[in-house]
Design a protein that fits this description.
The complex is a heterodimer of chains A (141) and B (128). Chain A is built from 8 helices and 2 strands; from the N terminus they run ββαααααααα. Chain A has helices spanning 12-20, 40-44, 57-60, 63-67, 75-85, 93-100, 114-118, 125-140, and strands at residues 3-5, 8-9. The model of chain A has no long low-confidence stretch (mean pLDDT 96). Chain A is mainly alpha-helical. Chain A starts with a strand and ends with a helix. In chain A, β1 and β2 form a beta hairpin. Chain A is globular. Chain B has 128 residues and is an all-alpha fold. Chain B is built from 5 helices and no strands. Chain B has helices at 3-6, 20-51, 53-64, 66-93, 100-127. In chain B, α2 (20-51) runs antiparallel to α3. The radius of gyration of chain B is 20 Å and the shape is extended. The chains are: A mainly alpha (141), B mainly alpha (128). Chains A and B meet through α7 and α8 of A and α2 and α4 of B.
Chain lengths: 141, 128
């Protein structure tokens, strides 16, 4: 990550990558009068994703992101992509997967696992990315 | 270009401490490339064997020399490290073994098992 001064990196690029995955709830069904309800099980699926505070420790420690900074989305952004893919209230799963199915955006992840080792909150971006890869595989089969 | 491109990059390869995760990933790739080169060497060795006793004894002199044996030992280790690392990757592809403890356990297991298998293969080769 480009360093502005000690301990102050320029996060412009990673945040623009974050905006690429459109990290908000997308739904076609009309909004209900009350909240969009989830079962406890549905809610538990986004555990490990919503806690991320976007510090980008994982992305800045990822060798694949060093080599392909521009085109590989990196672990932090992919963890968030997964968080919206598994959210039961989100209805854009197919479009989200279409956007990710790319040799660089997703598949530059070679399961190095520096991300999981470095996360200060003990989250597991590598597992989330593997989850996205599995979703793509299941969709194509 | 812009001011951004002149800024130092950090963390990056030069200033990020090597750790089991990245080192094993790197060696998995290096051993993969190395095995590709060894595959060519294997074809050369087979071709020499097929060409007749004279060319075979020539290439065997090279293989039996100390540098030849060292290369063969290195190749054996590359083979087993890549094999074990490949099996580890298959578990990950199935979505298993992503907990940090499991990552380290499987990583050190890969190292230990490939050293043991290399030793076992060489001990066996001297016994027969």
């Amino acid at each position: 990550m480009p360093v502005i001064k000690d301990l102050v990196p320029d996060q412009t690029h990673v945040f623009s990558q974050y905006s690429m995955i459109e990290p908000w709830l997308k739904s076609r069904t009309p909004a209900p009068a009350t909240e969009r309800l989830q079962s406890r099980d549905e809610r538990s699926r986004i555990d490990g994703g919503w806690e991320c505070i976007l510090c980008f420790c994982c992305t800045s420690g990822c060798p694949s992101h060093w080599w392909n900074t521009d085109r590989f989305l990196g672990p932090a952004v992919l963890l968030q992509a997964w968080r919206w893919l598994v959210d039961s209230r989100d209805e854009a799963t197919g479009e989200r997967l279409d956007e990710l199915e790319d040799p660089f955006r997703l598949y530059r992840c070679h399961t190095i696992l520096n991300c999981t080792r470095t996360c200060p909150k003990g989250l597991n971006p590598a597992k989330a990315i593997a989850g996205i890869k599995k979703m793509l595989l299941e969709r194509s089969s | 270009m812009t001011a951004r491109s002149r800024m130092p990059l950090s963390p990056h390869l030069q200033n990020y401490r090597p750790q089991l995760t990245s080192v094993l990933s790197f060696t998995h790739r290096v051993t993969g490339v190395t095995l590709g080169i060894y595959a060519v060497a294997l074809v050369v060795w087979l071709a020499a064997a097929a060409a007749g006793p004279a060319s075979f004894s020539t290439i065997q002199t090279g293989v039996r020399s100390l540098p030849g044996q060292a290369l063969l030992l290195g190749g054996t280790f590359c083979f087993f490290l890549h094999l074990c690392g490949g099996i580890r990757h298959l578990f990950w592809d199935a979505g298993r073994g992503f907990a940090l403890g499991a990552v380290y356990a499987s990583g050190w297991t890969v190292v230990a098992v490939s050293i043991s298998l290399t030793a076992a293969a060489w001990i066996l080769s001297f016994m027969v």
